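FORM 12-B: Structure-to-Sequence Request
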């Protein structure tokens, strides 16, 4: 869907006045534009040129190397890169005009969407998992609601800029060590990245920013379904783990050991829970309850080797 043309001044890219023309979904040079050339490594040339995006003009940097051209669209290195085949020779004029027409249409739509500021967060299977409201005179509002994290509705967020990315930080559950939620909204690709670390990683989650509002009824129904799904996932994982602990806790002398002695590597998994192992009629049982009830840390359960046990009655 992206087509471009690099015209070198004189006899090569190292000469004066090269131009770039590039047209893709929601990004375009609008025609030939002058480019600055830098050779930063042997066989690797970078072209710097103005590029129109949904939020105005930005400076783009395209790397030419071998048979490929690479245009980074995200602020973090290696993230959201547009890769194009590099072919020597001209470009069909009709194809270039057609690409420019399509690009202008998608760019106009993207500008309208970002001017409106209302986006639905949609995961790869098409499911709604949150929303973002960007307003010019107020702090952005964010809501996330799926099995992994939860705001309980729309909440205020802090906004920062990082190149082509808008960073939104906001209170979220679970907050096991006081951390906040973070979304990186990439303007050129209309993608919301949930980063797992400072640098891009395969553990990052990508969501589509789809223009549109979420109705109150739709939000409530989606949140209710997300709560059920999260609670079930928590129960499935926690009960299975507690059963294993209940079996392995008894040592050769018949003493029920604390979970830290059974498997200290579980510290990361059990953060946010109070977990106690005790002897109950000759068997080890595991009592689990959240230190602070919150999303994915809501289950209070008593588990023995055979599975979930009735909770102990509270004293009268």
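FORM 12-B RESPONSE
SEQUENCE OUT:
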């Amino acid at each position: 869907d992206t087509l471009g043309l690099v015209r070198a001044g004189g006899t090569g890219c190292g000469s004066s006045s090269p131009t770039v023309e590039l047209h893709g979904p929601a990004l375009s040079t609008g025609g030939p534009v002058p480019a600055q050339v830098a050779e930063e490594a042997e066989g690797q040339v970078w072209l710097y040129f103005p590029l129109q995006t949904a939020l105005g003009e930005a400076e783009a940097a395209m790397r030419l190397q071998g048979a490929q051209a690479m245009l980074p669209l995200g602020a973090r290195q290696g993230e959201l890169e547009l890769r194009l085949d590099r072919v020597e020779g001209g470009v069909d004029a009709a194809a270039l005009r057609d690409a420019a027409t399509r690009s202008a249409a998608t760019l106009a739509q993207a500008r309208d969407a970002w001017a409106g500021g209302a986006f639905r967060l949609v995961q790869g299977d098409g499911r709604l998992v949150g929303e973002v409201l960007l307003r010019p005179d107020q702090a952005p509002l964010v809501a996330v609601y799926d099995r992994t994290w939860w705001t309980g509705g729309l909440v205020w967020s802090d906004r920062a800029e990082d190149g082509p990315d808008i960073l939104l930080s906001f209170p979220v559950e679970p907050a096991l060590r006081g951390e906040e939620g973070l979304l990186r909204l990439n303007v050129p690709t209309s993608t919301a990245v949930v980063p797992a670390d400072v640098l891009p990683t395969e553990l990052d989650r990508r969501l589509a920013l789809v223009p549109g509002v979420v109705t109150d009824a739709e939000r409530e129904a989606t949140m209710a379904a997300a709560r059920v799904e999260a609670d079930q996932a928590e129960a499935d994982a926690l009960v299975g783990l507690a059963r294993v602990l209940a079996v392995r806790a008894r040592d050769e002398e018949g003493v029920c050991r604390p979970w830290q002695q059974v498997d200290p590597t579980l510290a990361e998994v059990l953060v946010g829970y109070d977990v106690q192992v005790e002897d109950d009629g000759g068997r080890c049982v595991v009592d689990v309850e959240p230190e602070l009830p919150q999303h994915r840390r809501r289950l209070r359960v008593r588990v023995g080797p055979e599975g979930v046990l009735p909770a102990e009655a509270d004293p009268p």
